[in-house]
Amino acid sequence: MAASCVAVLALSLSLPLLLLIAWKRWRRERMARHAVVVVLGDVGRSPRMQYHALSLAKCGFSVTLLGFCNSKPHDELLQSDRIRIVPLTELERLAVGPHILQYGVKVVFQAVHLLWKLMCSEPAAYIFLQNPPGLPAIAVCWFVACLCGTKLVIDWHNYGYSIMGLVHGPSHCLVLLAKWYEKLCGRLSHLNLCVTSEMREDLAENWGIKAVTVYDKPASFFKETPLDLQHRLFMKLGRTYPALRASSDPLDPATERSAFTERDANSGMVTRLRGRPALLVSSTSWTEDEDFSIFLAALEKFEQLILNGESLPSLVCVITGKGPLKEHYSHLIGQKHLQHIQVCTPWLEAEDYPLLLGSADLGVCLHKSSSGLDLPMKVVDMFGCCLPVCAVNFRCLRELVKHEENGLVFEDAEELAAQLQMLFSKFPDPAGKLNQFRKNLRESKQLRWDESWKQTVLPLLVDT
Prior knowledge:
The chain is α/β, with parallel strands linked by helices. About 45% of the residues lie in helices and about 15% in strands. Strand 2, helix 3 (about 75-80) and strand 3 (about 85) form a beta-alpha-beta unit.
């Protein structure tokens, strides 16, 4: 009888312990196969974080992607059965009260909301966080990581305080507070990634943060666009944007014609139009770190060259993107009276953007980093499409754009206008500089994001 009582007592005490061990093992196994990617911004306009999510999914993780859903992400991400997008609520700043109070209310709301969403997510082995914006996301993600035994990975795209400094000035109290916060909280992560070698060195020397450089690489869908797909894209966009429509109708009404291409009604063959305009593409977030007045001034100088009798083509300039300064620059563009240059500013679907880059003749980049330490991903995407680029110069651009090899670097509108004149002289000349740059890009055998991620990031996760 006594032995039976002892056995029952032992079983009663050990059963909860066994259940706890089993639960912890189940939770650890679930964590090992799950990752959270956090973007305190628009997911559709955060390609690098979309790529992190896709790469994690392809490596066997289930992924929860937290962010604002203001624009559509890429189809590959939406179609993945391993990725679940959880929308965050974006709070607009209060319309009344001091600026600091407005900003403070927004930060507190975002902190509480993000904390709630993270705590409601299933256990994760890793939290990948984009910085900027890091206020309040770094502190919240670190707190959750401590509670749940999760590893925090910060991906440094730039410094948030330097972007704020463009608007408020470098000595503003909010800018100084943001810098202190980033420097303090940035040290709390288990792993730091960054986009350039110069940023890695700056983080180490001035912030005491050890980071690993993971260069942006184009995704597999950034490639040269076949002529048939180019025609379909131009016909589709031409219904909305007159700059992409044909300037004259074909003799055969059944023939399809865009500003650049023509499909024969009988054979269905697509050809490029003789005497077609050159297609320039630029993409932007329409913020203070991109001065499009330089581009507009260069276009005016290019127009004057044509009027002076230079042998140059007409231009169609497509500037894609959304952002706070779009209305300002659209107004400036509307005031220009250019005869040989047309400009349109569409917001493209995620699937159309790579097709446009793969159809263009030249890319132009006006991105001038607020910190001087990040690189424009738009140029990475252009290079993936073998599209030569003219880019405005800044501190670490040489890590991406090789002058006279895959494109050109300029300082001001005069230099950009001269480069456009040189590149488009006798356009479309197969022996010209533009085609030489394109050939160099084709022969460079660029590494794609998935291959690069497996070589650089995946081993770091295993070692963390």
